[in-house]
C-alpha cells in the first residue's frame, strides 16, 4: 500500500513523516506542494490522487494541514484516502483538534500511533478506543511500553476481551437529515435524505448483534410484506460482516464498546416539505417590513423542537421591532439576518410573525437578489421522513444474558441551503 505517510503545513513543509517502505525517498514529500501550485497555475483541477515521475500522490486537507501518502506501486487509492481520514479522526480523539500546533507538541505520540496504525504500508489498528488502551498522551516520556491488548492481534480488532457490565444495554438511534433545494416559486428542485444508524453499546463479553431493517432488497429475498425502503450508497462500520449482508441483507456484527456509527445511507426520493415558510417584504424609503408565516406540514402527533427560522435583511438595517404569535425573534447582525426561534412546533400548526427595520441609507434594490436564502433548523423526534424501521435487534452472547435494546428515531434539517428570493419568497425544509 503506502510507502510513506507525511503531515505537512500549508507551505508544504513536512511536520512529521514515516517511511514504511524504501522504494520512495523522503525527498519526494517536498515536491508535493510545487506540483499542486503548477496544476493550479495551468488551470488544471487538483484531484486527491495524481502521479508524477512514477510516484503516486494521495492527499487530503484538514484545517491548516496536508496529509500525504506516497507510493510507487498501483495501490488502492480509495483505501489510502480513507486511511488518511481515519488518521485525522484518531488525532482528534487524542488532541481534541488536529492542527499544526498539536502536531508539533506531540511528535512522540504521533510516531507511536503511525507505527501501530500501519505496518509495512498496510493499515492495521485504526480504532482509537483500542489504541488509547496502550498508547496514552504520557507515552512521550518514553516509559516501558505496556503489552498491547489482545484485540490488536485477533480478528476483532475493534473490541477488547474481558468487558463486563452489571446492566447490559444497547441504544440505537436512526438519525435522518433532510436536504432540500427550493426555487423562488416554491418548487422542490433537489431532494435528498441522508441517514445514519448510531449505536451505544454497554454489553458484556463478545456478543453478536443482528439488526434487521425494512430494506426493500431484504423484503424481496425473504418474501416479507410491509412498507419497504430502498437505500442507496450504504456505508458500514468495519465490524459488519459484509458477506452475510450480501447473502440475506442481515446486518450482523460484533460491536465496539461504547459509541460508534454503524452505518450511513442515502435516499434520493422526493420529500414532502416538513416545515413550510412563506415570507413577504414591503420596502419603503426609510424602512422595511417583513411578514413571515410558518406551517408545520408533518403529522399532528409529532412535534418539531428547537426550530429556528433565519431570514436575511439588508446590511444597513437597524432599529429592529418584532411581533410574533409564538416564540421569540431577535436580530443577529453577525449573520445579516433576524432569527425567529420556537422551542416547539406541533404538526399541523400555523403561525405568523412580523418584523420592522429602519433603513438609514438608500442602496440599489438589486442588492436584495444577492442575499443569502432563508434557512430553517429543526429536530423532530420519534419520526423518520423515509419510513425506515428497525424490524428487530437481537443480542446473542454465549453466557446467555438478557440485554435491553432501545431504539429512537430523529429527523432534522440538513446542511443544504434553500434557494429563494424576496420580496415574495417561499421556503421549505
TrEMBL record:
Locations listed in the record: Endomembrane system
Keywords: Membrane, Protein transport, Transport
Superkingdom of origin: Eukaryota
PANTHER family: AP COMPLEX SUBUNIT MU
Family according to the record: Belongs to the adaptor complexes medium subunit family.
Organism, scientific name: Mycena rosella
Annotated protein name in UniProt: AP-1 complex subunit MU-1
GO CC terms, sorted: clathrin adaptor complex; endomembrane system
One example of a Gene Ontology biological process annotation: intracellular protein transport
Predominant place of localization: membrane
Domain MHD: 167-420
Any single Pfam family the record assigns to this protein: Adap_comp_sub
Gene3D superfamilies documented for this protein: 3.30.450.60, Mu homology domain, subdomain B
Amino acid at each position: 500500500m503506502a510507502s510513506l505517510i507525511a503531515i505537512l503545513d500549508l507551505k508544504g513543509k513536512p511536520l512529521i513523516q514515516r517511511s514504511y517502505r524504501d522504494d520512495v525517498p523522503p525527498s519526494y514529500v517536498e515536491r508535493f506542494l510545487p506540483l499542486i501550485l503548477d496544476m493550479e497555475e495551468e488551470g488544471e483541477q487538483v484531484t486527491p490522487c495524481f502521479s508524477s515521475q512514477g510516484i503516486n500522490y494521495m492527499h487530503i486537507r484538514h484545517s491548516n494541514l496536508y496529509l500525504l501518502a506516497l507510493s510507487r506501486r498501483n495501490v488502492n487509492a480509495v483505501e489510502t484516502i480513507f486511511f488518511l481520514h481515519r488518521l485525522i479522526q484518531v488525532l482528534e480523539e487524542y488532541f481534541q483538534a488536529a492542527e499544526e500546533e498539536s502536531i508539533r507538541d506531540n511528535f512522540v505520540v504521533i510516531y507511536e500511533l503511525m507505527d501501530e496504525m500501519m505496518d509495512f504500508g498496510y493499515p492495521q489498528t485504526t480504532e482509537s478506543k483500542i489504541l488509547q488502551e496502550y498508547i496514552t498522551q504520557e507515552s512521550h516520556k518514553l516509559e516501558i511500553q505496556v503489552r498491547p491488548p489482545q484485540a490488536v492481534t485477533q480478528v476483532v480488532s475493534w473490541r477488547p476481551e474481558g468487558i463486563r457490565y452489571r446492566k447490559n444495554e444497547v441504544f440505537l438511534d436512526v438519525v435522518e437529515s433532510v436536504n432540500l433545494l427550493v426555487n423562488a416559486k416554491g418548487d422542490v428542485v433537489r431532494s435528498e435524505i441522508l441517514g445514519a444508524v448510531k449505536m451505544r453499546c454497554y454489553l458484556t463479553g463478545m456478543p453478536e448483534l443482528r439488526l434487521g431493517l425494512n430494506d426493500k432488497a431484504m423484503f424481496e429475498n425473504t418474501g416479507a410484506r410491509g412498507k419497504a425502503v430502498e437505500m442507496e450508497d450504504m456505508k458500514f462500520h468495519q465490524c459488519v460482516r459484509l458477506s452475510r449482508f450480501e447473502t440475506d441483507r442481515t446486518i450482523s456484527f460484533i460491536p465496539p464498546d461504547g459509541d460508534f456509527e454503524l452505518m450511513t445511507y442515502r435516499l434520493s426520493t422526493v420529500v414532502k416539505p416538513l416545515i413550510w415558510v412563506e415570507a413577504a417584504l414591503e420596502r419603503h424609503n426609510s424602512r422595511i417590513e417583513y411578514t413571515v408565516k410558518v406551517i408545520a406540514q408533518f403529522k399532528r402527533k409529532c412535534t418539531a423542537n428547537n426550530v429556528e427560522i433565519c431570514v436575511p435583511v439588508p446590511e444597513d438595517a437597524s432599529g429592529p421591532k418584532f411581533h410574533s404569535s409564538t416564540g421569540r425573534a431577535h436580530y443577529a447582525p453577525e449573520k445579516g439576518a433576524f432569527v425567529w426561534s420556537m422551542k416547539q412546533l406541533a404538526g399541523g400548526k400555523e403561525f405568523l410573525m412580523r418584523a420592522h427595520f429602519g433603513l438609514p441609507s438608500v442602496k440599489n434594490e438589486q442588492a436584495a437578489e444577492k442575499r443569502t436564502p432563508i434557512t430553517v433548523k429543526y429536530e423532530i423526534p420519534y419520526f423518520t421522513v423515509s419510513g425506515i424501521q428497525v424490524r428487530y435487534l437481537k443480542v446473542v452472547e454465549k453466557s446467555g444474558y438478557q440485554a435491553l435494546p432501545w431504539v429512537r428515531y430523529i429527523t432534522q434539517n440538513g446542511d443544504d441551503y434553500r434557494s429563494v428570493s424576496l420580496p415574495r419568497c417561499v421556503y421549505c425544509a
